[in-house]
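I hope you will forgive my troubling you with a question about protein structure. Could you please explain, in whatever detail you think fit, how the structure tokens follow from the sequence? Thank you for your consideration; the sequence and its tokens are set out here.
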Amino acid sequence: MPTEIERVFREEYGRAVAVLVRVLGDIDLAEEAVQDAFAEAVKRWPDAGAPPSPAGWIITTARNRAIDRLRREAARADKHAQAALLHAQEDEPYEEGPVRDDRLRLIFTCCHPSLAPAARVALTLRLLGGLTTAEIARAFLVPEPTMAQRLVRAKRKIRDAGIPYRVPREADLPDRLRGVLAVLYLVFNEGYAASAGSELVRDDLCDEAVRLGRLLVELMPDEPEAVGLLALMLLTASRRPARTGAGGTLVPLAEQDRSRWDRALIAEGQELVRRCLRRGRPGPYQIQAAINAVHSDAAVAAETDWRQIVRLYDQLMALAPSSVVALNRAVAVAETEGPEPALALVDALAGDLDTYYVLHAVRADLLRRLGRAGEAAEAYQRAAGLTENAAERAYLTARI
């Protein structure tokens, strides 16, 4: 039964909090009520068995507990409790269903532009993902008290600034959706290539980002960039089994055993890319997904259609130019035109990306291919000194 409760917690926590935020109008109270309901489930379900609708039971129990608490506080002339109690009692009875709007409202509340980017990520993982404060702190390598304060400040800002619990108006949606997608992609990237620590890949963060990406597509099926981001994450995640070797060592894309790639994720991701193409409304996440689809088409690295990848990067540079995109394009140019023209492109980016270890790693590999071993070793050393991830540092040091 504990395993069943854990499953329900992971799957339904965000949904329950979203409903309770609407019912109570208070994020802290909603979170506490849902946690109380799960604590009650731990006591009751092992003996009585799980109810037919676990999500409905959790939400109803949480709502009742919160109303009981508000009644006690309202009796002491607590004006805030009186107002929240009135709000809660006016709400319609909960009925089992997809509650699409509640979760969507909570996603946009967590990712409101007035909140700092780090706070958006933390709130999204806490309220929608159900991760504990300790889990989020470990994921981003900060002390638990620091993360707890970050979450408290974010929720206080939502309350004090009157940040609305709603989906933005249609005119505001494109800009706000970009922020939501950026948060989910940041969570995924931190899982796929951890910025620090001993592990190269954090499976828990990758899986949580994919789960939230699926939720967003379910809630907004007509937004092609949401579909594109999900496709990008699935296609990238498909390579996880082959990305590390014995002892957790890094295996670069060109050297991976592609028979270990997850074909089910590839098939799903490629179908989503085709769905995006049919819409004819290209965006940055859709193009990145298409690039990864090209990689997934090649049974071995030598069969990769690099010319198609260069064309896609050209399109991405036209839509969303950045130095990192230009660096990735240079990697593709090295495969179509050779390392020398690619090196010229990389050197032109050194001013913008001098502290980005990937630039120095790419430059080192190009120098190695040109036979400039001494310069390559220096570039690998520079790259190794800039990464905080032990697996990446070990790989780069070994290349020297």
User: Anything to note?
Assistant: Residues 93-99 have pLDDT under 50 and may be disordered. Residues 1-94 form a domain with the Rna Polymerase Sigma Factor; Chain: A fold (CATH 1.10.1740). The longest strand covers residues 196-197. The chain is about 75% helix and 0% strand.
